[in-house]
Amino acid sequence: xxxxxxxxxxxxxxxxxxxxxxxxxxxxxxxxxxxxxxxxxxxxxxxxxxxxxxxxxxxxxxxxxxxxxxxxxxxxxxxxxxxxxxxxxxxxxxxxxxxxxxxxxxxxxxxxxxxxxxxxxxxxxxxxxxxxxxxxxxxxxxxxxxxxxxxxxxxxxxxxxxxxxxxxxxxxxxxxxxxxxxxxxxxxxxxxxxxxxxxxxxxxxxxxxxxxxxxxxxxxxxxxxxxxx
Length: 229
Known about the structure:
Layout: H1 3-21, E1 25-34, E2 37-50, E3 59-65, H2 66-69, E4 76-83, E5 89-98, E6 103-112, E7 133-140, E8 143-156, E9 173-179, E10 191-193, E11 199-207, E12 211-216
């Protein structure tokens, strides 16, 4: 196979990965108030963590970055609007916050397991190898899109020059990924998938030289192994 054919095959495979998994990724829009007055909105992505039968009150559950749903601790969260792949909107509530790892767990309060709308993503059991191809799927109010890239290395968050987050563990290890573009619309909380369609990490931020950083999927509660360890 020549180089151009190989590139075409890779592009087609990534397009298939995207089409097969985009329904698992949602948009999260939070509305916030200060002293009873709406002052800001914050948006990002998230994805289905586990089916509704394993969550409280038979509700679907998703995971995202804490900084998506808690952009400012001085503000009061008024509402979380969750947009699905089919364009439907559902109400969400924060069920748990993990500030140390910048993670938030959100339940969909108005959707039951019998509705069958929780499209689960499988979690990778092993760390990606250096150079391994990945895709990132994010969802804005305009729809879902994906970005191609490769895993680079694990690196301590400390010394990256990132903004401080309240009560965050600055010594934790994060994934560094070389993406075709690292900054974009509502990437925070987006899953990174390997070529098997399994999640290896959760987007946290874009950094210099078209690189992104992500929280390893093993950081989530109950996930096997230690990505990058």
